[in-house]
Specification:
Helices cover 79% and strands 0% of the residues. The protein is mainly α.
């Protein structure tokens, strides 16, 4: 029996076969990379953008949220959720046209109708103020603790603020703070409203709370600095807030102006001019900057130059007591007492009106049902020419008491003055004072 020959060992791979395997490996790797870049990477980027947008919105940084949502929609242009969130962030940024466009796209992509209708209600509330059935519906959703109650509270508050209804805004800010006491935005808005109502101590407490929650928040630093200057004339305390603001936002107009006012108050006119020059280089017509330059020139004994600067601010600040006081004093210094008298009288008139309306507003915050206080504030503001704000106050009186004759008569008088006879006649009919 013959022996079985041994199996020869495999021959080593040839150079050609090695190259073939390398080529196959490279093709597979390239295909894997391409598939990852084409499918996995866009999904990863989109998911990351969505998460970043949610975080920005939770911190009320809506412009940043919109930036992330643009990235999301760049990868997923027909994504219903992305368009809905962009609509909401646009509304919250007061870009209502963009909000409507993205709502339409979200609707076309199949987003739930209930969410879309809620955003439509909030757009209307922000644009023309909460009123009628829209207002009732939004109030009911808040009291029912709707899943989007924070967004509803924000939209309601912004609507009342946009239409000069600070007392109504305060009610919903209080509810917002009670339910979400770690949110910094309602404290900021309440502080600003307290300041506008000439209630500085209340404003100060809320600004402090904002800075506890967000130590470098530019809105709070700006508002606190302005409050310290306007209320206590404490240039030292205000300077600290403005300096901190400029660390966060080096070109902030209010920060540059505030630093100039503080330095002038502390005797550093050179430093004050430096900050003002930076401000006016960016915004040559900045009214309060021009008024501050008038103060610097007046301090330097140059009343003619100071008067020139103050006149530049006059058109933009017609209802500012400080402007009229400065103009009156400067006209006296340059020997024009006849020109000075109307400005000094206007300064006194405005100052007294703001003092009285501030007192009435404080009483109204304690008891919002006092229609007569709303009327008194509106009538006083009409008397000094603050027409838009005055009509808002008088209209709020009619919301409380639709047949309040003094409010109807005051509104009718205003419409007669501006030539709107139709509206004037309507309020005269209700008040029983037809012409």
């Amino acid at each position: 029996m013959s022996a079985i020959p041994p199996i020869p060992p495999p021959s080593p791979p040839t150079r050609f076969r090695r190259r073939a395997w390398i080529a196959i490996a490279l093709v597979v790797s390239a295909a894997t990379v391409w598939a990852g870049y084409s499918f996995v990477y866009p999904d990863w980027c989109a998911d990351r953008a969505l998460e970043s947008a949610r975080k920005a919105s939770a911190d009320f940084d809506y412009e940043l949220a919109r930036e992330h949502l643009r990235i999301l929609l760049g990868f997923r242009p027909k994504n219903a959720h992305g368009h809905f969130l962009m609509a909401r962030a646009s509304r919250q940024s007061d870009d209502l046209d963009a909000a409507r466009r993205h709502l339409t796209q979200a609707k076309g992509a199949g987003w739930p109708r209930e969410d879309l209708e809620l955003e439509e209600h909030l757009i209307e509330a922000q644009e023309i103020g909460p009123r009628g059935e829209n207002e009732k519906a939004l109030h009911a959703l808040v009291f029912a603790r709707h899943p989007a109650e924070r967004e509803i509270l924000e939209g309601l508050t912004k609507g009342y603020r946009n239409t000069h209804q600070p007392v109504a805004a305060m009610r919903w800010l209080a509810i917002w703070i009670a339910r979400f006491h770690e949110d910094w935005l309602p404290y900021q808005w309440r502080a600003e409203t307290f300041g506008a109502l000439n209630l500085p101590d209340d404003a100060r407490a809320d600004f402090l709370r904002v800075l506890e929650l967000r130590p470098r928040n530019p809105d709070a630093l700006r508002g606190f600095g302005q409050l310290e200057l306007g209320d206590k004339r404490d240039a030292g305390a205000a300077r600290g807030h403005f300096a901190a603001l400029l660390e966060v936002a080096p070109d902030d107009s209010a920060g540059l102006l505030g630093m100039s006012v503080c330095l002038r108050s502390q005797g550093d006119s050179v430093g004050a001019r430096g900050f003002l020059d930076r401000l006016l280089a960016r915004e040559p017509g900045h009214a309060r900057g021009c008024l501050e330059y008038a103060a610097i020139e007046a301090d330097a004994g140059r009343p003619v130059e100071a008067l020139s600067w103050a006149k530049r601010a006059e058109a933009a600040l017609p209802d500012e007591p400080e402007l009229h006081y400065r103009l009156g004093a400067l006209f006296n210094q340059v020997g024009q007492p006849d020109s000075a008298a109307p400005h000094l009288a206007r300064s006194d008139l405005l100052g007294e009106a703001y003092r009285k309306t501030g007192e009435w507003a404080r009483q109204l915050l304690d008891d919002p049902s006092k229609t007569v206080l709303r009327y008194q504030i509106g009538a006083e503001l009409l008397r000094v020419g603050r027409d838009e704000t005055a009509i808002a106050w008088l209209s709020s009186a009619l919301l409380e008491k639709p047949d309040h004759k003094p409010s109807h008569q005051a509104i009718a008088s205003y419409y007669r003055k501006i030539g709107d006879t139709r509206r004037a006649a309507e309020h005269e009919r209700i008040s029983g004072s037809e012409k």
